[in-house]
Amino acid sequence: MFLLINLLDTNRDWKNPIKLDLYLHPHFQYYMREIRIVVYSQFLESNKSVTTEAMVKAFGATVNFIDLELSRFIAAGKLHCKIDKVSSVLEMNCLDATTSLYQATIKQGDF
């Protein structure tokens, strides 16, 4: 899992057929973003809190890249965690089925 992001960024051999494909090329960035979301969520599920430095070491990216990407995914609702920029820590918000159902009900409203 930790090597997946490095593999995605450094190994260009498997990317070229996707980029050259007429039908897959327009969706390439979407595929890559969804793969990164799965990798980040798997990494964060195993830890209640993790430092950004640990993520930088695990994924081989810069702190700015990790912060920017995680903040976008959190704002979009793809990752359920909070970023503490002062102490450079990411804290997971564990959502169980009941909490998710409650939040969906509150969001939709009462009809």
Q: What structural class do helix, strand and pairing data support?
A: mainly alpha
| Assigned CATH architecture | Orthogonal Bundle
Percentage of residues in DSSP E strands = 5-15%
Shape: flat
Protein name: Putative proteasome component (PCI) domain-containing protein
Keywords: Proteasome
Organism: Rosa chinensis
InterPro entries: PCI_dom (IPR000717), Rpn7/CSN1 (IPR019585), WH_DNA-bd_sf (IPR036390)
What's the topology here?
Elements: H1 2-10, H2 15-20, H3 28-45, E1 49-51, H4 52-59, H5 63-75, E2 81-84, E3 89-92, H6 97-108
Antiparallel strand pairs: 1-3, 2-3
Helix pairs in contact: 1-3
Describe this entry's structure for a reader.
The structure is a single chain. This protein has 111 residues and is mainly alpha-helical. It has one domain (2-108): Winged helix-like DNA-binding domain superfamily/Winged helix DNA-binding domain (Arc Repressor Mutant, subunit A, Orthogonal Bundle), CATH 1.10.10.10. The chain contains six helices and three strands. It has helices at 2-10, 15-20, 28-45, 52-59, 63-75, 97-108; strands at residues 49-51, 81-84, 89-92. A three-stranded antiparallel β-sheet has the order 1-3-2. A hairpin with a 4-residue loop joins strand 2 and strand 3. Helix 1 packs antiparallel against helix 3. The longest helix has 18 residues, at 28-45. The N and C termini lie far apart (43 Å). The model has no long low-confidence stretch (mean pLDDT 80).
